[in-house]
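This follows on from our talk about sequence and fold. Please put the record directly below this note.
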Amino acid sequence: MLEPSYPGAVAPERTGTFVSDGVRLRVDEWGDPAAAPLVLLHGAFDHGRGFDLLAPLLATRFRVVSLTSRGHGDSEWVDVYDWLSDVADAVNLLHALGRPVHLVGHSRGGGQATDAALWAPECVRRLVNIDGFGPPPEGFAPADPRPLPVRFREYLDRRRRGVERGWRPYPTLDDLGAAPRAEPAALRGSPRSGCATSSTTTRARSRAASSGRRTRSSRAASGPGGRSGSARPGDGCAFRCSPWSGRSPTPGSFPRRSPRSASPTSPT
């Protein structure tokens, strides 16, 4: 990508590739690699370098990691795109970082950041949703024979309800998780954890235990090829970042699934 040309923008200090479910995704970084991580998720039709102005301001306190979604910028293209795959990519990155992060998303990225935080609360220290929104109840609906004005009116009503939810203040992630959701029920669950356990995770497990269920985060993590293992807190960058890391790209922790699947496949 080209160097930034607008005032105040700063090019990334490090660039790299993160592999999630076999898809190569561009990551850009600013700040001290040893600092607390802060992950940025961009909006639709944008890319990770859209944060060239904001990232250097945050980099005075954080290790800023900006992820470019599949099919955007320099990230790899795929045949089919869907909301859950993008959320899974974000959750894979959170696990790879190995410690709770500050998660910031804008517009479409804000909605996906919210779902990622609900999916893996043990990996999120703080969530910032900037003008974010979520998908319709079943993602993009199949062909509908009803007149376009009828369908579009329903879609706008769903978007309005999503905005009302997004703009309402929630003191904690637990309060947000208890609010009515338009997303598939699969996003309520938490996948296996590669991050340090937080008080949010403890409360989630307590709720699951009281209802006779077990969260996926209580299971052992499974690394590439089905081997047991997980990222250790403070283990640093699990993807290839030049020039300070010589590690090979690491496959994402989620198993492959059909893009039309309503929920991720349980780990084996």
